[in-house]
Amino acid sequence: MKQLSDDWFALGPSYYRRLTLYKPTLTNLQNSNHFLISIGGCGGLIAFLQKPKQSGNSLLIITTAAGKLFVETTWKDAPPVAISWSNSEELVVVQKSGYATMLNLNGTFNRRFSFGKDAENSQIIDAKFFTHEGRTAVAVITGNSQIFIATSLERPRILAVASELPLVNRPFVWQVVSSPAPGDFAAFKGPWILLAFEKYIHRLGVGKAIKIDVQNPGGQEIRFSNYHRLALSPNEEMVALYLDCSVLRVFSLVSGGGLEVRMELDLSARAAALGGGISDNNRVSTLPSGLVWLDNSTLALQWSNFVVVVDMEKNIYELFYPSLVHIQPEIDGLRVLTLSSHEIIQRVPHELECLGRIGASSPAVHLFSAYREWLAGSGRAHEFLRPVLTSPNAAREMHGAVAACLRAAAHCAPTSTDAQQNLLAAAHFARGFLSLLLAAPSAKNVDCSMIDSLSEMTIQITTILRLLNSLAVEWVGMALTWKQFESLGPSTLLDRLLASKHYPLAVELVHTYQKLPSKIPEHIQVRRSGITRILCHWVKSLPLSQSASPGDAVNVTLARRLSAIIDRCGISPGTDGGVCFATVAETAISCGQTALAERLLELEPRVASQIGLLMRLQRYEQALSRAVQSGDMDLLLAGVLQPLLEGSDARLEPTALSMLLRKHPIALALYRQYLEGNANFSESRTLPKGKLASQVLAVLQQEVDPSLATQRTVREAFASKDPAQRSDILIRAKDAYHQMKLDFLAHTCEEAAKLVNFHRRLEEQQITAPYFHLDERAPGSQVLPRLIEAAAFRWQGTPVNTTYTRLVAVGIPATDRLADQVRREFKMPEKRVAYLRLIGLALSPNKAAAWTEIERMAFAKRPAVPLGVIVKVYVDAGRQQQAADIIAKLPLEQKINSLILIGQKEEAINLAVQERSEPMLYLIQRLLIKTDRAMAERVGNLRTQISSLPS
């Protein structure tokens, strides 16, 4: 059986591994030195852009990580200076002409931006890419030694960095630092430049430049001419510099702006042995062509076909390759690309190192060793399991061993499928022992949730490993480690798969996240809309259909393919992980696939999503029919009114529209009312205007409908401001309804006319009364309305109830007689009259007489109004003392409520205690909990005491 550490190597106390991802055959790249190379992070595409030639255009080649050709095209723009893949999966090309051009995954132009007139005039000579606030950014140096930084590619904001150094045709190395510099310097709070020029190191910010002092360790002076390479650690806390005398120095950025030497290593002897290329001046080249950080404590140096790994303890490990090497940092290691291999060098993950390092001892190591012995048929398996099974915490240790094997298996992706299978099998092997240990008495301290979490972990890891192994196959070429997979995110990975048209794998990715109970917003979005995105991309990739007829052979084939895709995806409309077919149909319409869009709309369960798209397709009858079936009035209006919008492409002739509406009586009635300005509709809706609406209305009105004519008469009456005219029109409407035998509507019109005439007589007699609306309560009031005016002459438009109450509120015999007339003529119920009279008396300016009558109402043998309402009126009027006399007549519960209402809390509590009523105390506590918490707690204690008393 293959050992876990077969591809590991030791660098001091740490272990690193070489993961051979692919063995590409890049035969079309005869010499990689002639190309600018950028490897997409996390298993992305590889871009090769040919360096400028004296004649002819450069070549742009994009391949997968496995070397499979993805795109090959000609670069016809300005000469490139540097290229890189952005975080948004765009290929960024910085050009000599002062521009940065963004290309999509297929190598086609997306957009570009300029670094300014200075960069365009003096041209760009060098560029560096970096990450700032989670976005890809770029810095450039121009031909007149100016430095500019674009902090974002999406919305570029160009910063000018202070620099007076003559950099042109002079040796220098530089890097961009995105984190704030140590020390209190405002110029270095954002991105700033660390530049090594000749023998000195400079820190360049916006508006400020500082020369950094470097102290030699031990006071020894090193003779060198300039710095050859510079690299910044991933955490931006250390910087590595390679001197032209073959000395490697590592500095840490300290507060105050200085550099403190952390490590110094003389590589002159080793560099002389490694440098194999002959330079132009016929001397052996001993200087490395690359210097990058592998992680925050390890560096990698590259000579032509050698890679040397160095740690901070000066431990060295050399790797040889048969051809030229290109190295590039990765989030969890270092990518090494040659013409015949693609590798990742990374530190062995801790979860895997715990099982494979020499001398490791843990329950997980014992379990894995026992499984391998058991697989070989050896009796030593029991010896390895004994330390775990005999432990006092055997169940907990076995649980930890299973979890450790699962986590280690996750970090074996994407190359070691055998190790994955063995570790997963070892975890499964231990589940049987774990079941026995959980049944033992010593397992009482094991929480059941631990077992559930172990099951969830098993499902998650095995599901994702299956996906990672599928992505790693050579024809897909997206090998991802576990850390890269977590960093990349499902949304970006889905975009990559769609760009490569790997639709089955894209579906598998969505199904993977549908199985995982993750609550991360990005994961939820992929679960819910992933299949929709896949179908939209598939629709965009289809060739343009020449026929809109569903019966066309091509459209029939597309419909069959759509059905097959839906069946294979196992999706169902309307579910949480289903498809929004309306979104896919909208994409199909924009791509000219109208027949496919109709088929997609048939699968969409939400009628509201169908209507607008059917109108765009000019399928008016289908839209109207489905809107009527939905029973949604607003949706129906939207469906039938859109053809009337001026300037819209969806237009019907008046006759055709009227014939269509006659097929649906509900839509016809609603449409007619809407055109005629039915008052039932919201005022915010604007009526359709113009010649077309008038023509349709004329066509519809050819049908005689007496009820609609009478409705227009009623609306005309209420639109009139003359009371006499309004009354006459209402009488005519009453007669018309009588002829149609619509007695209820006739009676309603008669009552309305009677009220208009009564109001007119009141205004002729110049009777004034308090003005208010019964449905508007005064602030803090429970019964009485808010008084708008103490005496008002307005009567028209006042309802019957308000008219009666206002007349009572005047408080004189004449208005009392008029109020009694209203009661008789409009046949008001006695209980309503009593309630309205109580409100009118409480609002009357004649206080003495009014409150005397209210007292008589309260102390009557059988009050016409409930005493609780009368108490609330007293409280609203500020007469709490008089209310106390009425409270004595109330039942216990109402009495307590009323006492709390007038502020007599102690009396309410004493009354409940005297009755030994625990429910009444609970009522008091509930009433006081928001206003007097201390007293509410006291009532709670009394409840406890009463409930503990013997019954």
Automatic annotation (TrEMBL):
<keyword id="KW-0653">Protein transport</keyword>
<dbReference type="InterPro" id="IPR006925">
    <property type="entry name" value="Vps16_C"/>
</dbReference>
<keyword id="KW-0813">Transport</keyword>
<protein>
    <recommendedName>
        <fullName>Vacuolar protein sorting-associated protein 16 homolog</fullName>
    </recommendedName>
</protein>
<keyword id="KW-0967">Endosome</keyword>
<feature type="domain" description="Vps16 C-terminal">
    <location>
        <begin position="580"/>
        <end position="765"/>
    </location>
</feature>
<dbReference type="GO" id="GO:0005765">
    <property type="term" value="C:lysosomal membrane"/>
</dbReference>
<dbReference type="GO" id="GO:0031902">
    <property type="term" value="C:late endosome membrane"/>
</dbReference>
<dbReference type="GO" id="GO:0042144">
    <property type="term" value="P:vacuole fusion, non-autophagic"/>
</dbReference>
<dbReference type="InterPro" id="IPR038132">
    <property type="entry name" value="Vps16_C_sf"/>
</dbReference>
<dbReference type="GO" id="GO:0016197">
    <property type="term" value="P:endosomal transport"/>
</dbReference>
<dbReference type="GO" id="GO:0006886">
    <property type="term" value="P:intracellular protein transport"/>
</dbReference>
<keyword id="KW-0458">Lysosome</keyword>
<dbReference type="Pfam" id="PF04840">
    <property type="entry name" value="Vps16_C"/>
</dbReference>
<keyword id="KW-0472">Membrane</keyword>
<dbReference type="InterPro" id="IPR016534">
    <property type="entry name" value="VPS16"/>
</dbReference>
<feature type="domain" description="Vps16 N-terminal">
    <location>
        <begin position="6"/>
        <end position="435"/>
    </location>
</feature>
<comment type="function">
    <text>Plays a role in vesicle-mediated protein trafficking to lysosomal compartments including the endocytic membrane transport and autophagic pathways. Believed to act as a core component of the putative HOPS and CORVET endosomal tethering complexes.</text>
</comment>
<dbReference type="GO" id="GO:0033263">
    <property type="term" value="C:CORVET complex"/>
</dbReference>
<dbReference type="GO" id="GO:0003779">
    <property type="term" value="F:actin binding"/>
</dbReference>
<feature type="domain" description="Vps16 C-terminal">
    <location>
        <begin position="794"/>
        <end position="942"/>
    </location>
</feature>
<dbReference type="InterPro" id="IPR006926">
    <property type="entry name" value="Vps16_N"/>
</dbReference>
<dbReference type="Pfam" id="PF04841">
    <property type="entry name" value="Vps16_N"/>
</dbReference>
<dbReference type="GO" id="GO:0030897">
    <property type="term" value="C:HOPS complex"/>
</dbReference>
<comment type="similarity">
    <text>Belongs to the VPS16 family.</text>
</comment>
